[in-house]
Amino acid sequence: MSGMFEDRELTEEGNTTPEGVSYGLSTASEFVATYGWYILFGVIGLVYINSWLDTRLQGWKKQRKQESDLNSYNANEVLQRQEAMERARQRLQAKYDAETEEYAQKQKEKEEEKRKEEIEDWERHQKGLGYKSKTKAAKEAEQAEARGVTRQDKPKKKLRDDYNPLWGGQGSGFRPSARPSRSGGG
User: Fold this and answer.
1) What's the predicted TM-score (pTM) here?
2) Ramachandran area for residue 153 (φ above 0: left; ψ -120 to 50: alpha; else beta)
3) pLDDT at 30
4) Count of CB atoms within 10 A of residue 126's CB?
5) Which of 134, 150, 173 is the C-terminal boundary of a domain?
6) Is 104 in the same domain as 84?
7) Number of domains in the chain
8) Whole-angstrom Cα distance, residue 83 to residue 69?
């Protein structure tokens, strides 16, 4: 690096135009000092306008691309796609209708069975055999016996036990001593 500058020789005069350089620097610094805020706001405004224009330009390009894509679509492809979607909707609707009808049929059968039971109960009541049928409870008991499960009545819990776990034992009679009263004195 020093070899490059060795070939040059400084003249006795040195820099011939130092006043021009210093005048230019002083003029530039004076301009920035005078108009610095305007320059700063101008640059910020340009950046904002540039970003705003960029988003608008991107939106415009996107819209043109969509329009060109719409123009390039084949009408037959669109029609086929829509028909396929319609067939799929019809299949789903048919499946839903079949399930609905099956559910309605089951509900109708349940209502018919319940109506027959109520008629039988009313006829039994007219004959003096009792109003509501006890056959359901009897059938359930028979099924439980057939499975080997017997119903065991649980003993009823007493309303008041003689035992309190906080007492420590079966009524041992222990009571903690009363707290001493604290008098404020005075």
Assistant:
1) 0.32
2) beta
3) 92
4) 9
5) 134
6) yes
7) 2
8) 21
The reported pLDDT for the residue numbered 170 is 54
Running along the chain, 186 residues long, what does each successive block of 10 average in pLDDT?
50 66 88 91 96 94 85 81 96 97 97 93 84 66 72 61 62 63 61
Angle at Cα 94 formed by Cα 98 and Cα 80, nearest 5°? 170
The boundaries of the domain holding residue 48 are 20-72
- CA–chain centroid gap for 129, Å, is 60
96 falls within a domain: yes
Sign of the CA dihedral 143, 148, 149, 151?
Answer: positive
50 and 96 together in one domain: no
Cα distances (angstroms) measured from residue 35 to each of 29, 30, 39, 66, 91: 10, 9, 6, 46, 74
What integer pLDDT is reported at residue 1 of this predicted model? 47
Q: Give the C-alpha separation, 74 to 155, whole Å.
A: 81
Distance CA 94, CA 88 (A): 10
Judgement on whether residues 27 and 64 belong to the same structural domain of the protein: yes
Residue 161 forms part of a structural domain = no
